[in-house]
Specification:
The structure is a single chain. The chain contains 18 helices and no strands. It is mainly alpha-helical. Helix 5 runs parallel beside helix 9 and helix 9 packs antiparallel against helix 10.
């Protein structure tokens, strides 16, 4: 009987499952290539995400001006540094033209929806709630006239310290909880993506806590829920900043970040409008409006944006608390970075002198004397004035956004140091403070209101230029481009440190001179800190030049 033909190398191959021993199989398995998905970069290590978060966390509307200057964060994962397609986002998506447009307008709308209620809460609603705790929510107040000057003694000076305590609690809680939310969001694996569940839940939780903050409670209760509010708001803001870095391809990132900046500018003004008009009715009204906006913000943001890809297939990552604490550690042996950090902290302290206590300045300082001559609630003229200041700040920031890029090009062409212009912006901000102080202290009639509006216009422009051109100094001072994301996150803490210092110094000054100056001294204190920021900026620039050489 004929044997079937055996094809050499095909039919005579051995059965490896039977021919190989268990040791041989283990050796082959060690050589095999395992096709495992690489875990995405942590949001704390994304330079673009930290740059967006840094700009959006500023107390002034300068983020659009910063986006107009070509000072990108040193991102070593950029597609322009290797052979990857710049039309593909970091999460692997290649959006169509329609999706790119939707991303652009989606992040623009999300920045407004997320930012406006937060500004309303911080600028008007919460300070007015603290005033209500001390029974200042009345239509008439008894004012004592100083027989020497003929002016009323400053009223409501005892409100400065409770508000400062609330601000410090919020700053510390935000510094600790925002990195925690970022780390937890990075490890979220759901069919709806990593960021979407956090934004939706964060908006609803913010709405609930806002309604609680508006109740008649105590300062201790307000501090507890205000700290919890920092966690809830981080659930909204941190994933949004990370989404811009992950979902927007490098090709379209400058345009989308600029529109996001414009949205932040509008959110600052709209937030003040919401808080001011709400407080004209009752002290609880702004909390209702703010809660509605918070509830809508998370849901509307994820609906406007294209649907986020599922994250269920991402590799599991073990949570380590050291990764959260590491985001708070400053870089070692970085003197240039330390100087720009100190300059930013001084600048934010000077800005915070008026921004932290702005509602009290308008409500009790500008209209302190008018209490004797009217029975109408003073929240109405105070609300209109603070709205006018918000509009003036928006105009100033828009002018800065329009002129920042030409100024940057002009000083580069003429060989002028960027630090010189940044220091000049600090000086301009100090001039605005001096005008508001002078017109408020040594003038009568509407001069005090006009001084505040003029200050808002000048400060919006000055801080816009400072933020835009100062970003170039920050990028030059980063000690290691490979750790740019981490270092920018640490640099953002200068905003928090500045606000905390402003709250402490301002409260001490107001209470120490309650019967003579009170809120008057916030202006000269702000002038000193802003000028100090300019001096430190010039010193830091010299250190950067030494390192470059």
């Amino acid at each position: 009987m004929l044997e079937p033909y055996v094809r050499p190398g095909i039919d005579d191959r051995p059965d490896l499952d039977k021919a190989l021993s268990p040791e041989d199989k283990a050796a082959v398995a060690r050589l095999a290539i395992k096709n495992r998905r690489r875990p995405p970069e942590a949001s704390a290590d994304q330079p673009e995400a930290q740059a967006v978060r840094l700009a959006a966390s500023s107390t002034a509307t300068a983020v659009a001006a910063a986006a107009s200057v070509d000072a990108p964060a040193p991102d070593l994962s950029s597609a322009y540094l290797d052979m990857r397609d710049p039309m593909v986002a970091a999460n692997g998506e290649k959006p169509s033209a329609a999706k790119v447009s939707r991303l652009n307008w989606g992040f623009f709308a999300a920045s407004i929806l997320v930012g406006a209620p937060w500004v309303a809460l911080n600028a008007v609603a919460l300070p007015n709630a603290v005033a209500r705790l001390f029974h200042y929510d009345t239509t008439e107040l008894q004012v004592t006239i100083n027989p020497v000057t003929g002016r009323p003694f400053p009223v409501a000076t005892e409100l400065a310290m409770p508000l400062a305590v609330l601000v410090i609690v919020g700053v510390v809680a935000a510094a600790l909880l925002t990195p925690l939310v970022s780390a937890l969001s990075d490890r979220t694996r759901t069919p709806f993506g990593r960021r979407t569940p956090w934004m939706v839940a964060g908006g609803l939780l913010c709405a609930l806590i806002t309604l609680i903050l508006g109740q008649d409670t105590s300062l201790v209760v307000m501090c507890f829920f205000w700290a919890l509010m920092q966690f809830a708001y981080a659930m909204l803001s941190a994933p949004l900043a990370s989404a811009i870095s992950e979902r927007v391809p490098d090709k379209f990132r400058p345009r989308i970040e600029r529109w996001h900046g414009i949205g932040v500018m509008l959110a600052q003004a709209l937030g003040v409008f919401v808080g001011a008009f709400g407080v004209m009715f009752t002290s609880y009204s702004p909390f209702i409006y703010t809660a509605i906006l918070f509830a809508v913000s998370g849901i509307a943001s994820v609906l406007v944006l294209p649907r986020e890809p599922s994250s269920t297939e991402l590799p599991r990552q073990r949570f380590d608390s050291s990764q959260v604490l590491d985001q708070l550690r400053p870089p070692k042996s970085a003197p240039a970075f330390a100087r720009v950090f100190a300059a930013r902290a001084c600048m934010m302290t000077g800005v915070g002198m008026t921004s932290v206590f702005l509602w009290y300045l308008v409500r009790f300082w500008v209209y302190g004397k008018a209490v004797q001559f009217t029975s109408a609630p003073l929240t109405i003229p105070a609300g209109f004035l603070i709205c006018a200041m918000a509009a003036a700040t928006l105009i100033g920031a828009a002018l800065a956004s329009w002129s920042a890029a030409p100024i940057s090009e002009a000083i580069e062409a003429r060989g002028i140091r960027t630090a010189t212009i940044v220091a000049a912006a600090c000086l301009t901000y100090a001039v605005g403070l001096a005008l508001a102080w002078g017109l408020g202290v040594w003038s009568t009639g509407t001069a005090r209101e006009n001084g505040m509006i003029l200050f808002a216009l000048i400060s919006g422009f000055a801080f816009g230029i400072y933020d835009a051109l100062g970003l170039e100094l920050v990028m030059d001072a980063l000690p290691d481009p490979r750790n740019a994301g981490h270092d920018l996150g640490v640099y953002a803490l200068a905003n928090s440190a500045g606000l905390a210092l402003a709250a402490i110094i301002g409260a001490i000054l107001v209470n120490a001179f309650a019967h003579s100056f009170g809120y008057y001294l916030l202006f000269p204190a702000g002038i000193v800190m802003v000028l100090l920021a300019g001096i430190v900026t010039l010193i830091g620039a010299e250190k950067i030049e030494e390192i470059k050489e």
